[in-house]
Amino acid sequence: MEQSMTPAERSLALHKKLIWPNIAIVVVSLIAVFTLLFGTWFDLKAPVDAPLVQTLAEAIREEDGMEIDEDMIQLVVRDLDSEIGIKLGPIDLLRAGLSVDRNGLKAVANSVFHDLTNAIAEISEQILPSVLTIAVVTTVFEQTGYPENFSFETLDPTVFQETISLLNDQEPAAAKTEFLQQMDTFAQEQLQMEITPENRDKISDIFDEAVELMTKNGEFSFSNFPTAVSQLMKKYSENGSLTEEESPVLDENDDLTAVQTRALMSVSTENLEQTAGAIDQLFELMENPDDFIDSMDESTFALVRSICLSVGIWMTFYALLWLILALFAFIHIFTRNKKVSMWYVKLTGLTPFLLSVVIPFVAVALLPWVIPQVPAITILCGGMTIASAVCYIALWLISIFWCHPIKRRIKHPEAYSMEEDDEE
């Protein structure tokens, strides 16, 4: 029957065969539009675990010559298993760039730093039992020194887990009582020592000071742990008996107990002050990004806002190309000519995935080769651009194996007729 068709009728029949491919193109394109426009482009995650911390410690030791107690480090990171991540999408940047005031930028900053703050709280909660263990051990052996063949690896910090739970429940008084009770048990069972009244008072004071530093506006938060460490570092640099020429070893007459030194590593006073200051600035920004944004002068705010707007528009551009393809494919379902041009999406459709996933992953992987001082760190790159990349591959498959054979027959009707004759 098809042999009796006129060329026009055969062409119309072939065009009708493009209806379902066009519908598929519409579906694929709309999925890409929604993922690129409303999803996250940059979803970067860095696992924070024992291998990472040990790698960083090794890099610090090689670069700055710091003396780091690996035995303590291994105890602290033994149960560490978390990750730090940042998520960012075009809607966030457009909101910041198009806002007439600073509220849009504040919303983006609060969203980004909220995730970081939660990650830091989780990390601090995981390592705090080990930190408390080190506090007890270093204070108990401050005067006598460590026993022969002593190792932190043999210690079990889970005895202080209930203390952490009570702190998490906003019960600092009960947590302190529990801590002091478990401290006696820990010393007797794992150290074969009795806590002297003097050491008990020292540890109690350290616990109170740490809890106070980690409490803001009447609420205890593990996210304040790095700030507490920073303050202890400052106190050490001010009260410690070190000078830049002296070896950073505690003396019996030092004002600060061993827990506030060995647990924070042995460094020079100048390095302590610089590190503490940097930590303070970072966590002040994380705790209250609104104040940081309000403190920007107009020129800086205008620059940041224009950058957010430019990047947001650039991200939206790729979603717009997919939207145009979806629109044209939908329109051509109802027109006589149902062929749809896809070259502009085929040319650019993979760019978001390359820029937000592939390039960051490769850059982080190659960074230690370019800058040897930078330790090798694993970065997990995700985001909804992966979905758009799948849509891009699907579009190519539809084009090659579905649309192209039909279009070829429309373009070369004589060859199509000859094929049909040969088949008979």
Q: How many DSSP helices?
A: 18
Mean pLDDT: 80
Helix content: 55-70%
Strand portion: 5-15%
Main beta sheet: strand number and arrangement?
A: 3 strands, antiparallel
Give a short synopsis of this structure:
With 424 residues, this protein is mostly helical.
Itemize the secondary structure elements and their pairings:
Layout: H1 7-16, H2 19-38, E1 42-49, H3 50-64, H4 70-76, E2 81-88, H5 90-98, H6 103-140, H7 161-168, H8 172-191, H9 197-213, E3 215-216, E4 219-220, H10 225-239, H11 259-262, H12 269-287, H13 289-294, H14 298-332, H15 343-348, H16 351-370, E5 380-382, H17 385-411, H18 413-423
Antiparallel strand pairs: 1-2, 1-5, 3-4
Describe the structure.
- This protein has 424 residues and is mainly α.
- The chain has two domains: 2-39 and 298-423, no CATH class; 103-294, no CATH class.
- The protein has 18 helices and five strands.
- The longest helix has 38 residues, at 103-140.
- The protein is elongated.
List keywords for this structure.
mainly alpha, elongated, 424 residues, disordered C terminus, 2 domains
